[in-house]
Design a protein that fits this description.
heterodimer, A: alpha/beta, Rossmann fold, four-stranded antiparallel sheet, globular, B: alpha/beta, eight-stranded mixed sheet, 33% helix, 23% strand
């Protein structure tokens, strides 16, 4: 059976200039393999500099991989073809307030996404926007608001709307839940779980919050210095981590 | 002995739209050797309270309190220079975002040496410089930085957030404070470093009897590391008492929602089940509801809730709600 998203032996290195002729190689990702089915959640945990964000950026095509391939539904994904990939994989940034343009209305932001990536005409776009806002529990009038008029939790919903308006199959949440307050976080988590049940969306959850991972994720991957140390069903990784580093990490939430 | 005792602390700010009351009649008390948590979401005024205790609030803030006593002395009634003297002798604070609250233009060694008060140094005046350096290095070792050479000559921007956090702790404990205020000490840190930091704070508490006021928005970390707890919502104190009692049977609907929204405290919660959440979002300071500020979001709000509830107590458990949970059920 072919999985929705398959990543095989993905590697990525950054080259940093050192002096005039030499350059230093920083291995950000080395030999990453995973498979994600629809309606499933993969959590990626690790400390800063472990390559979590690089993995997300490679998947959405912000960075190009050096080696390895990304298969989507069995066929290779060309990350450079933005117009096609951004229908499949969408990305949410850490800080919703800073990732939305402050001088555009919400409806303009959403229109721009649709104008760039779809062939819908204006009426169809309006319909689509209305439907998406409704799906996320926002009102139609919210389209006329500017980002500063929203509170933190609502802004996160707007960011979700921008990601979901193209009906993606995979959503990457890069620390998107970390900055939220506990009661708002619970709201957004509920929303995400609800969407997953309704539409079979898959999530790649990049986070430091292991307690949330245990509640939310089907699979967990532990990254350390670009290497994948542990990968498997969440409960197995939490109960029997194979590597010394992941054991330390799992222990840190029960200290 | 009561170390800090604050009754009805109110912080107000004058704005073009009128007076904003950011902190509304909050009570807070700390015993010697106690570790108290202060929990609240963003905008609940927890950092403001910490700054008011330290006396570093901007002068535009109007501070009023019925009682603001430190070791039996009312700080509000003392002249300014005496206030400063007492606070700088006894209270230390670890600020949010350590790398940004340090001086970017001087090296770690200089900053750390500067924070050691002279009366703690031994020897005659010509031996002080040496003693100061020795003590600063000892402090670095104490907070878990083994390689003091590398850190000594670096500047804050060259170090990672975790190391900066440890250095700011070293600066805070340099004067052997009676009270250590830690304002969101773990937000910038990895979960493994977080564990280290809490062990460090706990060891100061146990070895030296330092009281700690731990400010955070994450209930689970606070709950694990404190003896008592105060919960704030939008500048009002909703509940205070022993951590264990509050976690076991919360009386205020907001505390209840906070506890229920954390998967860890809900062992019977199934995988991927919906979490308990209050509807709506936190009001901004310009649009605070009258009466109980939780009112519009509260699941069992009634007509009486437009009046601010008075603080009540059952044994050691303080709460301010017209309809506390155990009586409703």
């Amino acid at each position: 059976m072919s999985q929705l998203l398959e990543v095989k032996q993905l590697s990525k290195a950054y080259h940093k200039a050192e002096g005039m002729f030499r350059s230093k190689k920083i291995q950000a990702l080395l030999d990453i393999n995973f498979a994600l089915d629809s309606g499933q959640t993969l959590a990626v945990v690790g400390e800063t500099g472990s390559g979590k964000s690089t993995l997300a950026k490679v998947l959405v095509g912000i960075e190009q991989p050096e080696q390895g391939e990304i298969l989507f539904g069995g066929s290779p994904l060309n990350c450079r073809d933005y117009q096609k990939t951004n229908h499949l994989i969408r990305y949410i940034f850490q800080d919703a307030a800073r990732s939305l343009s402050p001088n555009q209305k919400i409806s303009d932001i959403l229109h721009a996404v649709l104008r760039y990536s779809t062939v819908l005409n204006e009426d169809q776009r309006n319909d689509k926007i209305a439907n998406t806002l409704k799906l996320l529990g926002l009102l139609n009038e919210h389209g006329n608001y500017y980002p500063h008029m929203f509170s933190g939790g609502q802004l996160q919903r707007v960011a979700l709307a921008r990601a979901l308006i193209l009906d993606p199959k995979v959503l990457i949440l890069d620390e998107a839940l970390t900055a939220l307050d506990p009661s708002l976080r619970a709201q957004i988590v509920n929303l995400l779980l609800d969407l997953q049940q309704k539409t079979g969306l898959s999530y790649i959850l990049i986070t430091n919050q292991l307690r949330l991972v245990r509640h939310f994720a089907d699979q967990t991957m532990v990254l350390h210095q670009g290497r994948c140390l542990d990968y498997g069903p969440t409960l197995d990784v939490f109960n029997q981590p194979t590597h010394e580093y992941s054991r330390k990490l799992m222990k840190s939430i029960q200290f | 002995m009561q170390l800090l005792d604050i009754r009805n602390l109110t912080l107000e700010l004058e704005t073009p739209e009128g007076m904003i009351r950011a902190v509304d009649r909050v009570n807070l008390s700390l015993k010697e050797g106690e570790v108290r948590g202060l929990v609240g979401e963003s905008g609940s005024g927890k950092s403001l309270i910490a700054k008011a205790i330290m006396g570093v609030l901007h002068e535009r803030w109007r501070i009023s309190a019925d009682r603001f006593s430190w070791c039996g002395e009312d700080l509000m009634r003392l002249p300014y220079h005496k206030q400063r003297k007492i606070i700088s002798r006894d209270i230390a604070m670890i600020y949010q975002e350590p790398s940004r609250s340090m001086d970017p233009t001087s090296s770690i060694g200089e900053q750390l040496s500067e924070s050691i008060p002279t009366h703690l140094l031994e020897g005659a005046w010509w031996q002080r410089a040496n003693a100061r350096k020795k003590r600063a290095i000892a402090l670095l070792h104490k907070v878990g930085i083994r390689d003091h050479q590398a850190v000594w000559h670096s500047y804050p921007y060259q170090l990672s957030e975790g190391v900066c956090q440890k250095i700011s702790i070293a600066m805070a404990i340099a004067k052997n404070p009676k009270l250590l205020i830690a304002d969101e000490p773990t937000t910038a840190l990895e979960s493994t470093t977080q564990a280290q930091l809490f062990r460090l704070l706990a060891s100061f508490n146990q070895l030296k009897g330092t009281s700690i006021l731990l400010i955070s928005h994450e209930l689970e970390t606070v709950a694990r590391n404190t003896d008592s707890l105060s919960v704030l919502y939008c500048g009002q104190l909703v509940e205070a008492g022993d951590t264990e009692t509050i976690l076991k049977d919360p009386l205020h609907p907001y505390t209840n929602a906070l506890i229920k929204s954390v998967p860890e405290f809900q062992p019977e919660l199934a995988f991927k089940q919906q979490l308990y959440a209050l509807h709506g979002s936190i009001p901004t300071l310009q649009h605070l509801p009258i009466g109980c500020r939780l009112g519009p979001r509260c699941p069992n709000a009634r007509k009486e809730c437009v009046k601010t509830p008075l603080p009540e107590r059952v044994q050691n458990h303080h709460f301010s709600c017209h309809f506390p949970l155990s009586k409703v059920q």
